Amino acid sequence: MEKKELLVVDGLKQYFPIKGGFLGRTVNHVKAVDDISFTIHEGETVSIVGESGCGKSTTGRAILRLEEPTEGKVVFNGDDLTQLSKSDMRKHRKDLQIIFQDPYASINPRQTVSDVLDEAMTIQNVLPKRERRQRIIELLETVGLNAAQADRYPHEFSGGQRQRIGIARALSVNPKLIICDEAVSALDVSIQAQVLNLLDELQEEYNLTYLFISHDLGVVRHISDRVIVMYVGKIVEIGDKHSIFDNPKHPYTKALLSAIPVPDPDRERNHIVLRGDVPSPIDPPSGCRFHTRCPFAQEKCRVDVPELVRHEGMKDGHEAACHFVEEIERGEVKPRELAVTAF
Amino acid sequence: MAETILDVRDLRTSFYTDEGEVKAVDGVSFSVPKGKTIGIVGESGSGKSITSLSILRLLASNGKVVGGEVRFKGDNLLAYSEKKMRGLRGNKISMIFQEPMTSLNPVFTVGQQISETLIEHQGMSKKAAMAKSVDLLKLVGIPSPEKRVKQYPYELSGGMRQRVMIAIALACNPEILIADEPTTALDVTIQAQILGLIRDLQQRMGMSVVLITHDLGVVAETCDYVAVMYAGQVVEYSDVRTLFRKPRHPYTIGLLKSLPRPDADQEKLVPIHGTVPSPLHMPVGCRFNPRCPAATDLCREQLPDLFDDGEGNQVRCWIYNEQWPGEKEVDVFGEERIARR
């Protein structure tokens, strides 16, 4: 069954100017997101993973035009969002909501929960005023809070409860797509599990589509249907969850997965330890951006930018941006050094 | 079990606030065997960081250790004078923190900050200390240390700064390294580097490590023994394999079941209901009882001790005591039932 395409991101670029010098001219750009394309189907959960500075949050913000994208198309339900006027975009935001990492910073401390939800509904003109109170109570119950809490202020809630308020606010306008930007990262595990389960249930009930941005690969494995791996502004690998976790092809994905500490003391620990730090997106490495840390890097990698393509032995929809996927698989390209340690 | 280098007994630390006394740490006991790594795990507010700060007596002015003992090679550190304590910190017992940027002084070079420790504790000359600083930077795997030693913290990446913190902590060959969430602010590939480094240096120098973390993955990979903390108390203490294979305290079981695993598929996470209690209003009896699916009246009335199973594994739960009034097999968070001993 072919699923409906809900969001198509095509050639998205987000450059931030760096002002400097005597006259405050633009001296360079931070290439936070540099030409990425992907599609999200209705009802699925797609995650973007990567380390700090890889552009995953910027991608989420660019889709919503919280920052104006430098280039590229963001087609939602057939409309290119980048071409809309400000007021048309505002109307579309009803369909695209976002939940942020920090529930302390993303809710106005001077509004009661009821005000927070009411404001969202007023802006999007969702319900006549007299029906809203009832809806607010329903929403609170949906996210596991209760009617008695509607007139309380954010500081009276714990972190997990505040994140539930953020979810209720996103739901209040009946969105189709919710972007969760590190939405559970600040929560303790026992609370995180409550919120993850809630997101699961809501998806089923309202046929929601999630774009889940996270650095926590355990969370990503749990919640995603498909996964996008980013490195310094580029997509290095994309595929369904099992392809990415059980059959990763890009050397960066392999290193990233092997670096995660697994809660099992008996597991054999072979970490591929990458040397050095993530390069700066201001002046990213030439060719493949991972070549400076890649144990397999060849001359070609320094020069040519690899395309995101499906190689031999990869399932449909599983693509990696590496020149030597097949050669590495066959053992023809060997790592320069043994970069494996057990700690 | 190896020789015990640090023994914490019934440690109690309180903070005095406008709203009353907050018992942040309330009867914590554990011991650290020489050359081993012990993990202290718990969620926000469990008292894990305050425990480590209490060991080194680095509490804020409104905090006070009100009871217990911290024995370092037999000596009670709580009875030390402030001067004697200062001679110990950064020398015999060192500490590294989560956020390397705020722990380093922004207006001194990396070399000056490492040297400070060496000059203070080992009476080195400035020149000798600077030379040793270069060696230490090399030891923690910083490339071109001669150049880095003259740089300021802002010129280094997060991973590099944490390496500098480790260099400072290791300058005097400490016997114990206390690491409070040392990799929480770092990306996973950098975390792997830093954890590998700590493990490597520990083996070379034979020091003991107290690792404070909320990450059960990090615990499984780096620790020999684990103390699980909840609401200011240790609720379970055991070797790492037992903790993950046969967790006994319902809180530990709940934690493991709520954890989304990167290495396996799970249909559904099993969360622990409710939230951590406020330290101002601790529940009567077992502190976990309001969230525990197995709680009985006994749990709601009386706080259980840390019961020892005779093999050095301890658990603070009535299920493992003769007084347990419930069934022989207890259902905790679904599926398997845990059998009483």
TrEMBL record, chain A:
Residues 18-257 form the ABC transporter domain. Pfam families: ABC_tran (PF00005), oligo_HPY (PF08352). InterPro entries: AAA+_ATPase (IPR003593), ABC_transp_ATP-bind (IPR050319), ABC_transporter-like_ATP-bd (IPR003439), ABC_transporter-like_CS (IPR017871), Oligopep_ABC_C (IPR013563), P-loop_NTPase (IPR027417). GO terms for molecular function: ATP binding. Keywords: ATP-binding, Nucleotide-binding, Transport. Coiled coil: none annotated. Belongs to the ABC transporter superfamily. NCBIfam families: oligo_HPY, PRK11308.1. This is Peptide/nickel transport system ATP-binding protein/oligopeptide transport system ATP-binding protein. It comes from Bhargavaea ullalensis.
From TrEMBL, chain B:
One of its GO terms (molecular function) is ATP binding. The keyword ATP-binding applies. Residues 6-256 form the ABC transporter domain. InterPro entries: AAA+_ATPase, ABC_Ni/Peptide_Import, ABC_transporter-like_ATP-bd, ABC_transporter-like_CS, Oligopep_ABC_C, P-loop_NTPase. The keyword Nucleus does not apply. Keywords: ATP-binding, Cell membrane, Membrane, Nucleotide-binding, Transport. Pfam families: ABC_tran, oligo_HPY. It comes from the Bacteria. It is a peripheral membrane protein. It is found in: Cell membrane. Belongs to the ABC transporter superfamily. This is Peptide/nickel transport system ATP-binding protein. It comes from Bhargavaea ullalensis.
